[in-house]
Amino acid sequence: MRCREIGPGFVAQVTDLDLTRPVTALQHAQLNHWLDQYLVLVLPRQALTESQQIDFSALFGPPSERSRPQDQRVEQSPFAHLIGVVTNVRDNGQPIGSLPDGEMWFHHDGCFIERPYRATVLRAVQVTSTGGETLFVDMRQVYESLPAALRAATVGRSAVHVFDYRTLNQQPDPAMDLSRVRHAVHPAVIQHPRSGAHALYVNPLCTVRFIGMPVDESQALLHELTTAILQSSACYRHRWDVDDVVIWDNWASCHARTDFPSGEVRMLRRSIVSGQPLEPALSQ
Ligand code: SIN
């Protein structure tokens, strides 16, 4: 098994490993070490079945049950409670999976629940001829690059995050009625549960507002932090090939998706590694 950095300090490609075969204890430990050290691992040419993808996810922690296994595949697959489909395919006009169309802003998977997921795994089944790339940003590096005054204004705060993926490229309304949506509060700067690294934990798609701050100040702070994410040089763009497997750490990275042609099929299988409550960074 070999590992080579392919993105700015936080993305590695892992080769010489066949995930259709059992991994050894050493490989298991090494993969976890690399996920903690980098944040995004790319494993090309892994033609995994659904059950093999679940086994791969389980190397990193207990697989998380899907929160909305409402698509048609519930009847079709015995693994539908653990594997979702990210796709624009429709049946009778209804998407058969989740996150169907177009551009999606930066977000952390699971930031709207009490125990945000440790990791997400995607395997590409069908890809478009152009676009539909997944962008990743290292939120450890974003945090480190913030001016000292902005770090001081952010560390120690908490923010509310919502699940409202009906709109994939729109900021949530800071005055929204939270009783009507799934939401959770987390530290704005976290201490990574495994590595101890400090990472910014806000994003433009799900973060509604900072707790205990007037709305206009909260919006201004969120705008500054979002700009830092969007302008970060610690960004990696993944152009998908069929059978690419990508796993990413959801605590210290966030991700987005570029637009793609609506007339072409894009389909990825998605599995999730369970998480835990996030603790705040106690110092800058
Ligand atoms: C996701 O946010 O989990 C999906 C990303 C993608 O479709 O590239």
Could you name the key traits of this structure?
single chain, 284 residues, alpha+beta, Double-stranded beta-helix, seven-stranded mixed β-sheet, four-stranded antiparallel β-sheet, 19 strands, binds succinic acid
List ligands, each type once: succinic acid
The secondary structure category is alpha+beta
By DSSP (H or I, 4+ residues per run), the number of helices equals 6
Largest sheet: 7 strands, mixed
CATH superfamily: Clavaminate synthase-like
**What share of the residues does DSSP label as strand, in percent?**
25-35%
Q: What's the Cα radius of gyration? A: 18 Å
Helix percentage range: 10-25%
Description:
- The protein is of the alpha+beta class and 284 residues long.
- Helices cover 20% and strands 30% of the residues.
- It contains 6 helices and 19 strands.
- The protein has a 7-stranded mixed sheet with strand order 1-2-3-16-8-18-4, with helices on one face. It has a 4-stranded antiparallel sheet with strand order 7-17-9-15. Strands 11-10-14 form a 3-stranded antiparallel sheet.
- The mean pLDDT is 94.
- The structure holds succinic acid.
- The site of succinic acid has 8 residues, from strand 17.
- Succinic acid (SIN) binds next to strand 17.
